[in-house]
Amino acid sequence: MSTNELSIAGMGVARSVVSQIVANAAEKVEGVASIYGQDIASGLIAMLTSKPQPTTDAVECEVAADDSLEITVRLAVFFGYPFTKLVAEVREAVAAAVDAQIGVRVSKIDVCIDELVFPKE
Q: For 69, phi and psi rounded to 5 degrees?
């Protein structure tokens, strides 16, 4: 099994597939601006300014000993949304999407808010 693939309950799943499922679910939650570092604007801003590109993956996933998934997702969120409520909704959406698409339980979802997006004034 390659490092780009997860072995879950005898099934191989590409990390990029899990990342896409997680990203799609998280981005549908109201208050999430984007998955940190994965939007076109972030790339352009980083190229044109001194703002550094994110050095970690926006979505990280590992298989736990019980064949469940442990996920970390990094977000850019809009100003004005309570973080605790937003994080709870992201966790719920991600767990449901992974269960529906892959059929695997998610035992842990860490949500990191890496950027705050302010409305244009």
A: -100, 145
Q: Which two tokens stand for residue 105?
A: 């339980």
> In this predicted structure, what is the pLDDT of residue 49?
52
User: pLDDT, tens digit, for every residue of 43-83?
Assistant: 444 545 555 554 458 899 999 999 899 999 999 999 999 99
Distant-in-sequence contacts of 85-90, Cβ < 8 A, 24+ apart: 86/29, 86/31, 86/32, 87/111, 87/113, 89/29, 89/30, 89/31, 90/25, 90/26, 90/29, 90/32
- Give the global pTM: 0.81
What is the identity of the amino acid at 75?
L
